[in-house]
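ok trying again, last paste got cut off:
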Amino acid sequence: MGVINAGLGNHSPCQTCSEGRQRVLVHFTEETKTSSLFNKLAMESSVQHFPVTHKECSVVIKGNKTDVVISGYDDHFLVIATQIGSMGTILHARKDESLSIHPTFNVSVIFGKRDEPMLVACARQLIEHISTSGSSKPLVLSLGLQDHSSETLRGVVSAVTANRVW
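nice, full thing came through this time. structure:
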C-alpha cells in the first residue's frame, strides 16, 4: 500500500499546517493504481497551486448587467467583460518596446469579430491605462457585449480601471 499527498505541501500526517490546511492522505492498492480516481489524485498532487490576483464586479451599462473579471498573472492581464454570458471577441493588446518618446500599442483580434473598431479602441484604452501605471504586461481582453457603442465600451473601461489589479 502507498500514500499520495494530494497537493498540500510537505506536511506531517494528521496535522494542521500554519495556513490551516490539513494534509489529505489517500491510500491505494495495486488495483486502484489504474483507476481514474488514482490518476486524478496523482495529477492534482503535481499541480502547483498559486494565487492569481483578481477582482470581480457587476455593473449595469445601458440597462444591461455586465459581469467583469480582472485577473493579473505573472506574464499578462486578463479582462473578461460579458453581458451575454459568453466570451465574445478576444483581443490581445501590448505596448511596443521602442526608443520613441511616444509609446505605440499593438492590438490584434485573436478570436471573433474583426470588423469592430470600437472593440480595438477599448483594448487600446485599457493597455494605455496599464502602461501609464508602470506595467509592461500585455492584456488579453474578452468582450461579450450586447452592443459595441462608445457608451457601452466607456462603461467597460470605467469598470475595469476602477477595479484594476495592476
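cool. The CA atoms of residues 94 and 106 lie 5 Å apart. Residues 1-49 have pLDDT under 50 and may be disordered.
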